[in-house]
Amino acid sequence: MDDIIYGKNSVLEALVSGEREINKILISKNIHSDVKLNKIKELAKENGIVFQFVAKEKFQPYAEYNHQGIIAQISPVKYYDIDEFLENSYENKSMVILDGVEDSHNLGAIIRTCVCAGVEAIVIPFRRNVQVNSVVEKTSAGAVNHIKIIKVNSLVNAVQKLKNNNWWIIATDASANDNYFDVNYNDMNFAVIMGAEHAGVSKSLLKLADYTVKIPMLRKFNSLNVSNALSAIIFETVRQKLSNIKK
Amino acid sequence: MDDIIYGKNSVLEALVSGEREINKILISKNIHSDVKLNKIKELAKENGIVFQFVAKEKFQPYAEYNHQGIIAQISPVKYYDIDEFLENSYENKSMVILDGVEDSHNLGAIIRTCVCAGVEAIVIPFRRNVQVNSVVEKTSAGAVNHIKIIKVNSLVNAVQKLKNNNWWIIATDASANDNYFDVNYNDMNFAVIMGAEHAGVSKSLLKLADYTVKIPMLRKFNSLNVSNALSAIIFETVRQKLSNIKK
């Protein structure tokens, strides 16, 4: 089970102190509104933390806690801020941006792959993407502690900021003309955007990409798991880097 | 839940007819030995089907069935025979051999990757490797029906047969000198052996390999998930194949 903080006072205290990283706040639909609850919602909004009003059945797994109809799910890692990240200078570094990866096991596998391949950071949005929870931490085999996870409110804004800082943006799209290995990944900072398992990368992000690439399929079966797709691409960038050093 | 056949008569009938593909037979330790049970064990041995004597608690999930202490787990696919496979001639084809992959989700992801990358067949051993079950089928997103799954009693014998038929054997090993992208995969039939998540490829198989390769790690974190490791290697072979055609 995920780490949680429960009860109005504790959740409010966590928001005020800002010491714990909150993935999401669940509020029972049956809870009575009062000053504390309003303060919680206000602080959550300010800090870009998602809160959801849910049926009381959602609190079943937490029955043993005196939760008073409010629970904050805590992340096992501290998320990074994109502005803070960009204050440092980078050279020939890579980054992975996830646009709608919903499965915890996939995120865990992606984090492992990224750490092995020397990726600098992974960017995830607050909404419509799985957050780093205890399943992700476990599936990542501890890799989650060896990479920067950047959480952002808007992927479009984040990509724009990266571009302003001379990062090159590579988006994956099944209908692209170029293959992922046609790009020269050396001598630049680049970010690879991976899309949702079914919908792919959002159009608004595809528009911002410097390169759009596909993974060529040798059979008429276009359904690679997102972590396996990323692995193919990210290790091609490793191959190019190591081949470049040899020259 | 997996497809099952239950009760002495039905399991015996399935073994005699050979029409259903049996992954494993579970026999309760409390069952009384008789002519039928002896016949079941005899036929299972003959056909290389694993049978296990288990505590009656193992039958809990099947409580609704009148199983009489015996259950056969059925595969959703028909397995291929290696001799049958090798009777056909192959040119520039690839194959993946799994030596101790225990997780159903990993096998499912590997099958998806192999189908997308045009791999001809996947070889798994009867023992110490997950079989194709309903979780594998689901995780593979149906890919399991688009590739030949070959089940063998001995991986060593299978690899020897492949070598005798001019297949080249590439084994992965974290301590190898060469990187996987140093091998030229064009103009040959080749089989890539992937090892167990922790133990790696068995020594007896490493000895038979024509090439031993590693995936270079850019951080001191050597723990790639097996399906992601395979994806990096197998799409490098695709890259080489497509680059070769262009020339």
Summarize the structure in short:
With 247 residues, chain A is an alpha/beta fold. Chain A contains eight helices and eleven strands. The first copy, chain A, has helices at 8-17, 35-46, 82-87, 104-116, 134-139, 155-164, 203-208, 226-246; strands at 4-6, 22-28, 50-54, 70-74, 94-99, 121-125, 148-152, 167-172, 178-179, 189-195, 211-214.
Question: What proportion strand of chain A?
Answer: 15-25%
Q: H/E element string of chain A?
A: EHEHEEHEHEHEHEEEHEH
What oligomeric state do these chains adopt?
homodimer
The order of strands across the largest sheet of chain A is: 7-6-5-10-8-11-9
What radius of gyration of chain A results from the CA coordinates? 20 Å
Count of discrete domains of chain A: 2
Helix tally of chain A equals: 8
Q: Please count the beta strands of chain A (DSSP E, at least 2 residues each).
A: 11
**CATH level-four homologous superfamily name of the largest domain in chain A:** SPOUT methyltransferase, trefoil knot domain
General description of the model:
Two copies of one chain form a homodimer. Chain A has 247 residues and is α/β, with parallel strands linked by helices. Chain A has two domains: 4-74, 2-Layer Sandwich (60s Ribosomal Protein L30, Chain: A), CATH 3.30.1330; 82-246, Alpha/beta knot. Chain A contains eight helices and eleven strands. Chain A has helices at 8-17, 35-46, 82-87, 104-116, 134-139, 155-164, 203-208, 226-246; strands at 4-6, 22-28, 50-54, 70-74, 94-99, 121-125, 148-152, 167-172, 178-179, 189-195, 211-214. In chain A, the strands form two sheets. Chain A has a seven-stranded parallel sheet, sandwiched between helices. In chain A, helix 2 (35-46) links the parallel strand 2 and strand 3 (50-54). In chain A, helix 1 (8-17) packs parallel to helix 2 (35-46). The radius of gyration of chain A is 20 Å and the shape is elongated. At the A-B interface, helix 4 and helix 8 of A face helix 4 and helix 8 of B.
